[in-house]
Design a protein that fits this description.
The protein is mainly α. It has eleven helices and no strands. It is flat. The two termini are 36 Å apart.
């Protein structure tokens, strides 16, 4: 209690604009990263699950490279490495940040959705083909709705990791997101305790909200069998209480 009482909360309130600006930048880059990673995961996960020639092999290489190298090394290569010859591609900090979040998150989402699509019973796909659906139509109407729901829980962790990784990317390439703003403020005020404590609280609140939204979506899109299992568990719990 004495530690909390010794905090200069007025300092945080006076600099709330700095934190809000950083939070807005974090939310923008993370939103693009989460949505983009989902898109990459669905497309490449489907290619891997259905063994699409060439695309499946390239996707496997992409997944292995991204998942087995540090994200900071990837960020430095995209932001600094590509700006040098022979590439000479200079990306703005915001573009490089969301691009790397999409690439990194997409690799993990690819495996999430691949596992989800492969978990769909083959007889379901056979039923779709028996109804006259083509391969693409069967995927859109059978595999994607079921496999996507199966992959959703693991995608929660990936989405949260995408958001948290923005804290690594910002300071590395001087993107004025939340962590960079906090670091800059601390370097001139030397109020590290107040600043980083507040920073942790903000990230905790954002992650809780994101987790709650995705879990609400998961519950709404749950397969009928999963809903029945959840209902039975709730009934047993209520009876035990």
């Amino acid at each position: 209690m004495s530690l909390i009482a010794s905090f200069e909360w007025s300092f945080i309130w006076e600099n709330r604009g700095v934190f809000l600006d950083g939070l807005w930048e974090t939310l923008k880059v993370s939103a693009i990263g989460v949505v983009g990673a989902f898109g990459v995961g669905v497309v490449l996960g489907a290619a891997r699950a259905h063994r699409v020639p060439v695309v499946s092999q390239l996707a496997a290489v992409y997944v292995e490279v991204i998942r087995n190298t540090p994200i900071l090394v990837q960020v430095f290569f995209v932001y600094f490495g590509l700006s040098e010859p022979p590439f000479n591609i200079r990306l703005p900090a915001f573009t490089a940040a969301w691009l790397m979040l999409v690439i990194w998150g997409g690799a993990f989402s690819t495996e999430n959705f691949r596992a989800g699509f492969e978990a769909v019973p083959y007889r379901y796909r056979e039923a779709g083909r028996a109804l006259g659906f083509g391969r693409l139509t069967t995927f859109l109407n059978v595999t994607l709705p079921i496999g996507g729901r199966i992959a959703l829980p693991s995608s929660i962790n990936t989405s949260i990791s995408v958001l948290k990784n923005s804290a690594l990317i910002g300071p590395a390439i001087s993107l004025p997101e939340l962590t960079y703003q906090a670091y800059s403020l601390e370097s001139v005020s030397f109020r590290a305790t107040e600043i980083y404590f507040t920073l942790a609280l903000i990230y905790l609140a954002v992650v809780w909200v994101l987790s709650g939204l995705i879990r609400a979506l998961e519950a709404r899109l749950a397969l009928p069998e999963a809903r029945r299992v959840r209902t039975r568990r709730q009934q047993r719990f209520q009876e035990a209480v």
